[in-house]
Design a protein that fits this description.
This protein has 235 residues and is mainly alpha-helical. It is 67% helix and 4% strand. It has 7 helices and 4 strands; from the N terminus they run ββββααααααα. Strands 1-4 form a two-stranded antiparallel sheet. Strands 2-3 form a two-stranded antiparallel ribbon. A hairpin with a 2-residue loop joins strand 2 and strand 3. The longest helix has 47 residues. It is globular. The two termini are 35 Å apart.
């Protein structure tokens, strides 16, 4: 039984495993990450088997809509040169989308409510993007540190500011995703607990409990929208 709104984010070790000070335990967070991966793989495998159906099923339509959305995202933001990075972008978007949606199921667990998970993803992508930038542009990649037309007298200050801003993106992406998911789940838990307590008391408070219940349902719909939005923003 969950007694506090923040207890839903507790990482529970299901299979303790450690070597000295190195802990490799299998936790509820690990389980839901693996579950998401397997569900996504199964869904896409079944819907795209034999190139799919001419008249798509409901699940095939969902997969096709996600695919078309990411294709348009890549073409608009990167262009034709970014087509070779489509598999990475598509995988990242789908993984985050489904792991956020699975976390909306009652008594499940949302791995993206932990900063270590989101920061690990954002830092990995940040390092990869930086490496690709150097491979593509060479040392000219550093030119973004000094905006075009900026006075040379301000160059030392601008270079430092731009460098800090660029490096901070690895942190900001992870913080944004984890903070939004955690705040939404916490708010839903607080209001649902408040509504349940009012209903348990009965009387006029029991009748008035309809109001927070309605708000909880509305927030749940909003959280589903946030799950899509955060996957899009992170990608």
């Amino acid at each position: 039984m969950i007694f506090t709104p923040l207890e839903q984010f507790s990482i529970i070790s299901w299979l303790p495993l450690h070597f000295g000070n190195i802990y490799l335990s299998y936790t509820n967070s690990s389980f839901y990450i693996m579950l998401t991966t397997m569900l996504v793989f199964t869904l896409f495998s079944l819907t795209t088997k034999n190139t799919g159906y001419l008249v798509p099923t409901r699940w095939q339509s969902v997969v096709e809509m996600i695919y078309e959305f990411v294709v348009s995202l890549v073409s608009e933001q990167i262009g034709k040169k970014g087509e070779k990075y489509f598999p990475l972008i598509f995988t990242t978007f789908v993984f985050l989308l489904f792991i956020n949606l699975i976390g909306m199921i009652p008594y499940s667990f949302t791995a993206t409510t932990h900063f270590l998970v989101t920061f690990g993803l954002s830092l990995s992508l940040f390092i990869g993007i930086t490496i690709v930038g150097f491979q593509t542009h060479g040392l000219h990649f550093f030119s973004f540190l000094l905006p075009k037309g900026a006075p040379l007298a301000l160059a030392p200050l601008l270079v430092v500011l731009e460098l800090v801003s660029y490096c901070f993106r690895a942190i900001s992406l992870g913080v944004r995703l984890f903070a939004n998911m955690m705040a939404g789940h916490t708010l839903v838990k607080i209001l649902s607990g408040f509504a349940w307590n009012m209903l348990s008391i009965g009387g006029l408070l029991g009748v008035a409990a309809v109001i927070p219940f309605v708000v909880v349902f509305a927030l749940t719909g909003l959280e589903i929208g946030v799950a899509f939005l955060q996957a899009y923003v992170f990608t």
